[in-house]
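Worked Example 4.2. Consider the chain below.
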Amino acid sequence: MTVINKNLTNSELPNAEALLTILAQKLQPLLQKNTALVGIHSGGVWLMQRLLVLLKDSIATHGIEHGTLDVSFYRDDYAQRGLKAENRPSQIPFEVESKHIILIDDMFYTGRTTRAAMNELFDYGRPASITLATLVNRGGRELPIAPQVVAAELQLEASQHLQLTQLADGSLALELTQQNNSARP
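Applying the procedure from the previous section yields the following structure tokens:
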């Protein structure tokens, strides 16, 4: 796993495409019968779509199902964040009950998005297990939740905001910006 220290610049960020390959390699052994992939909008869904291609043989062999979650209504800070223009309804076209869910998100920060996703998943049924896979764990955990599968660890300042972007050609890139306040996402 790649660990990078604080005070990074955009030119020092790891390549998102290379991290995606690392994430796919780490997920490969976890794919088994009765497993489903669930991407969290929007970055987690982008990752899942790319992982479906990279892991297509295992996905076909094991009959891996997949779906998407938009956790906006499940977040504890919904009143402050509100709805965003890109919000899309969740789509879980399979039975969640007793499935081994691999929950996919682009960044792990405080754990609040993951908690919201788990709350929503339990509205669909009780999974056998939930494994959190993220491209980047950026540090700053507030809840007793942590990703089990991570491509890179980046220790960032609270004022730094790391975002996964999808370029016009479908490739992924990481972008680092400074926030004016220390409010956490």
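The domain at 2-178 is CATH 3.40.50.2020 (Rossmann fold). The first helix runs from residue 16 to 27. Compare this with Example 4.1 before moving on.
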